[in-house]
């Protein structure tokens, strides 16, 4: 039995941040995606978008610098970078739905091998699920990356052949970062890009609810 | 002389009828006109249909109006959030109708109403529960969903500086739904954080031109931000 340590939430966020190139405009979902903001490489200019009308969000403010009028879509206080802009909700979602956002990083309950994502309702019976901007982002952003634990707390795979929860959008996910691996969603299904040290391809397959393929270089 | 200023909240809310569709601006606590929302309790209108991004939090503002039993239905994108206890209780008890709308579709339905566009097509929601019962159509090889405009009887908006013609600007992230809801209602009532002289907001910095605004209510300083 080999030894391995799954990535922490913070380490997962840092792993995603490492792959975002200079100049991209990115929207970060709630949960682990939000942590990406604090892990962005300092030597790259990456512009963060927020649904409630912000481009160019900076780091969280120190307690004495909180401006109660500046919050992000997760209702947390934020700062603005020089070069930031503010706008209303229709313009903000025109940016999203019009394909102007380079990348959206979302959390997920499930991702299917064909790129389907379920991240808004935990059951078909949930009559009051909170969708927020997830459906708009899932279909509107140029790329969708998901960051999530590889399985639920009970060990049930979150990467599956078919989603069982209600879909947020069909066929939109490009890449998945988990606490165990980085996986591309391709026309043939899940292709493993990298695995954390000490974990074998076969052991990763056991924790995944769909067939994994080795990335061909 | 054009002067849209009114004395207080009560005068600002005069004439709102039972069964009205009322838009409530703001996102989170920013730009939420709590004193206008709570003013509706005293004003007395019942069976209201509320359009807002969230379904209220704690026991203030929208949550307080819902708790007072004045809301028949809420149209929103994110009903459940930290502190949405009033919504959850009423919804569980079957005392509140709910229409969930993706946030971008909500914004665009409001914008469309303000711009006189009765319907539009969007990719958002295609292949999901949101699409059930809605018309779809293919454009250039891709499937889109038809969504209808969302006009209102009344919009309750909070702005930062407002002049007597109703020209508004907004502070920080306070534009959010305020700036689009202001365009989409028969009567738009603006809670003004500061009332300023004509010309004090430079023309190139006016975000909501006064033509969209019906009444300007001075901010009551005893209400928390």
Automatic annotation (TrEMBL), chain A:
Pfam family, one: CoA_trans
Claim: GTP-binding is one of the keywords in the record: no
UniProt cross-references to PROSITE patterns, sorted A to Z: COA_TRANSF_2
An example molecular function term from Gene Ontology annotations: CoA-transferase activity
InterPro entries, A to Z: 3-oxoacid_CoA-transf_B, CoA_trans_fam_I, CoA_transf_AS, NagB/RpiA_transferase-like
Record carries keyword Ubl conjugation: no
SMART domains: CoA_trans
Keywords: Transferase
PANTHER family registered for this protein in UniProt: KETOACID-COENZYME A TRANSFERASE, SUCCINYL-COA:3-KETOACID COENZYME A TRANSFERASE SUBUNIT B-RELATED
Entry similarity comment: Belongs to the 3-oxoacid CoA-transferase subunit B family.
Protein name per the record: 3-oxoacid CoA-transferase subunit B
Species in which this protein is naturally found: Acetobacter nitrogenifigens DSM 23921 = NBRC 105050
Automatic annotation (TrEMBL), chain B:
GO molecular function, one term: CoA-transferase activity
Keyword Lipid metabolism: no
Database matches in Pfam families: CoA_trans
Superkingdom, natural source: Bacteria
UniProt KW keywords: Transferase
Family: Belongs to the 3-oxoacid CoA-transferase subunit A family.
Protein name, as recorded: 3-oxoadipate CoA-transferase subunit A
Annotated source species: Acetobacter nitrogenifigens DSM 23921 = NBRC 105050
Lineage of the species this protein comes from: Bacteria, Pseudomonadati, Pseudomonadota, Alphaproteobacteria, Acetobacterales
